[in-house]
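Reminder to self: tokens first, then the designed residues, so the page reads top to bottom the way the pipeline ran.
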């Protein structure tokens, strides 16, 4: 986890996204214990309420679940839910914009695919 936060995005969202990234990258798997709120507060040196806000969103979306007196755990199917959510976001945030710009520039679908393959193949 990175300790520095981007100033353009609320910190609780960044904390949340870092936990999501750990789940997506299989660093945290289903039924693994997630870092506690206190551990995150101590690690990031931020307010308890800020961390709780991010964690509670993950609980509300059934990505994490609480075991009273024990801690926070990764829910079954959490990774798949996150992948689906991020793919939808990727489509809305990047693909729609890409297609709109391509249409303005009269770039064909085949040309777009060629560009994507070229970039993916370059390792960028």
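Designed residues (124 positions):
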């Amino acid at each position: 986890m990175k300790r520095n936060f981007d100033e353009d995005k609320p910190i609780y969202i960044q904390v949340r996204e870092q936990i999501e990234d750990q789940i997506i990258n299989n660093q945290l798997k289903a039924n693994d214990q997630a870092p506690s709120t206190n551990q995150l507060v101590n690690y990031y040196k931020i307010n308890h309420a800020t961390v709780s806000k991010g964690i509670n969103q993950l609980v509300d979306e059934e990505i994490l679940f609480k075991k009273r007196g024990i801690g926070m755990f990764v829910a079954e199917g959490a990774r798949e839910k996150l992948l689906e959510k991020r793919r939808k976001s990727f489509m809305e945030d990047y693909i729609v914009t890409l297609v709109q710009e391509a249409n303005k520039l009269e770039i064909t679908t085949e040309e777009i695919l060629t560009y994507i393959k070229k970039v993916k193949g370059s390792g960028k």
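The radius of gyration is 18 Å.
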